[in-house]
Amino acid sequence: MIAPLRVGIAGLGTVGAEVVRLIEQQGKILSARCGRGIKVVAVTARSKTKKRGVDLRGIRWAKDPMAIAVDPEVDCFVELMGGVGDPALSAIEAALASGKSVVTANKALIARHGLKLAALAEQHGGALNYEAAVAGAIPVVKTLREGLAGTGVDRVYGILNGTCNYILSRMEQEGLSFADCLKDAQRLGYAEANPSFDVDGHDTAQKLAILASLAFGTKVAQSAVYVEGITSIAAADLRAAAELGYRVKLLGVAVRTATGIEQRVHPTMVPRTSSIAQVMGVTNAVTIDGAGISPITLVGPGAGGAATASAVLADIADVARGVRALPFGRPVAKLAATTKAPMERHEGGYYIRLMARDLAGTAARIATRLAEQKISIESIVQRHPDGMIDAVDATKKSSPVPVILITYATSEDAMRRALQAVQSDKVISGRPQVIRIEKN
Ligand code: HSE
User: Fold this and answer.
1) Which of 104, 116, 119, 137 has its CA 20 to 30 A from that of 279?
2) Structure confidence by residue, pLDDT tens digits, 69-81
3) Which atom of ligand 1 is nearest the CA belonging to 166?
4) Relative to the CA of 308, which ligand 1 atom is closest?
């Protein structure tokens, strides 16, 4: 009979408390699946007295995370405090250095220090499991690292932030304001402590950097990710997208191109009939395009205590079974440097919404500027203030009107040059709204 795996948990927020509860509740199933029991022997958190709805009797309360990390009575250190630096970082380093296995949900820490930590895990023989860091309950880390170990991946993309998808879905479906939707996401426990991290795209960027490393066998390079968030998305864009057969999603996309690996996070128009467009609310989705296989799409809950705890528990179960995958799928020394494909070289279609002077010649001027950059227009429509979209009719009116263009594939560089020229022609007011189109 193998002794139970002794687990120490630092951080008892929504996720940590749920992990304790699940281990208690599913003890028998877990021990059948792992061939041994799993026992929480020590915990720590900022407040000892806070009500968490879980029974902590019989579990030692440690004075701080480090005390658990170096405790010889603990086999597996579970870090659920968050934060890119200390105390999480030093505690994980200490745990790995003492030969323990580590399970964490900390995407910021893995994106920033993952390589250093993976090297420590390799050196001392422990596991470093972080499934919960990306896309909540969806087992995408395992899928890329183990399930697709025999397949060359060309592109991985997805909806990686539940808060943003929740906000965009409710804004579109219920006509609610950005602020109201964000408040609800916070109330439901999806949003980060600082929601700018979600809505400005940084949360997605960290997750994407991790996925890109697993997909392409490259070093995690968060600084190579181009990032735009969703705060500029207006109800007018969501309406226009619907009318034109698209839906707006915040996507993280990592793709191999001729110039290197393109990693980008931005609001994206996806065809309304595509599978990714059907993913609504807090749900996440990841699509993997691999050589010789049709794209694989994984869909599931990406945020919230239960989703994250499910992934944490699966990682603990692997440690209990003695399964130890290399954290990034290959030895750290074998990970290639990331060659960053410059965003200016990105190629794709674009949605552009401009507030244009409603005078004869305006549409012609805009079309000329695009043509000068060899940008071909797929459609151009003018929205009248009553909300209807018609073909552009440059009748004389004084106030600016929204003009919406969809282009065929072009380069980011050409698009930026064309829009600069349109702005200097003074036929539009304000800045153009630009949303990239991703077709699959
Ligand atoms: N704030 C994140 C989200 C939580 O909304 O997806 C999971 O990382």
Assistant:
1) 104
2) 999 999 999 999 9
3) 5
4) 7
